[in-house]
Amino acid sequence: MSPPRSPSPPAALPPSLSSVQIPNLPNSAYYIPSFLTSPEESFLLHKVLSAPQPTWRHLSHRRLQAHPSPLTPQNILLDIAGKGLPDWLREPVISRLRSIPVEVATSSDGDIEDATTEGQHTEDQDNGKRDDIFAPSPHTSPNHVLINEYHPGQGIHAHEDGDAYFPLVCTVSLGSHTVLDVVRKGVGEPHSGGWRILQEPRSLLITTGEMYTGCLHGIAGVEVDEGLNEQGIVNWGLLGDRGEYAEGWKRRGTRISLTYRDVVRVKKVGKAFGGLMR
């Protein structure tokens, strides 16, 4: 049984997406430190950690869940009887993602660009409305969530998310911080150069455009993150509580990441077919 969801004020969203763009990175990456409230984080952690064991897929260095289902080997999401994402993964995260004030237009490759640069305005902008960040994606909303659990000392190798998804990734961190290592493709492993992004608990990291298509990202398998300062962390000025990292190092706890994406290829199948896939 889920714990009661304590009433709490909604997390404060930034005045605009551009106000939380991470500096000195390839376009485009954005960081919101307090995307969730503490009660919301506690509720989501309970839902994730109380999931039945068959829900988890165990890898050599971590375990994960895929909702509403894993992708097929052909990178297709099976829509089994219109099941979709469970409600607890939808709210409040998706509505809040789509409520982030976006004063810009998003191109087909995922880059978020100033709509006024070319002197062009969309009809919605002329009417005083704003597109949300998922408006250009094929299904105009996330349809897939990958949940990863990282214990201290666990990480993930440098990788790219690939063309199975629309080039827009929204990652929510629960329980503990981590440091994401980013490097341009062809440069080498992230820990040998590039940029380091500190992700606080309850934070949101958005990556699109060149950050999605032109870079690799990974997490070093360490128990303690060091070099946590203005010189070593590219989003230092956007952190919600720099005092937590004032000593320049921080021991990791267990972190749960929720990665929201829009899978490009979706195939509708009946419930009976879905049962055979289990």
Structural class: alpha+beta
In helices, the fraction of residues equals 10-25%
**What sort of overall outline do the alpha carbons produce when their principal axes are compared?**
globular
Task: Give the N-to-C terminal Cα separation.
Answer: 25 Å
Q: How are the strands ordered across the major sheet? A: 1-12-9-16-7-3-2
Number of helices: 6
How many structural domains?
A: 1
Order of helices and strands: EHEEEHHEEHEEEEEEHEEEEEH
Can you tell me the CATH class?
A: Mainly Beta
Please outline the major beta sheet: 7 strands, antiparallel
Radius of gyration: 19 Å
Percent of residues in beta strands: 25-35%
The residue ranges in which pLDDT falls below 50 over 5 or more consecutive positions are 1-8, 114-129, 274-278
The CATH architecture is: Sandwich
Average pLDDT for all residues: 86
| Number of DSSP E strands | 17
Protein name: Fe2OG dioxygenase domain-containing protein
GO molecular function, one term: metal ion binding
GO cellular component, one term: nucleus
Region (Disordered): 105-141
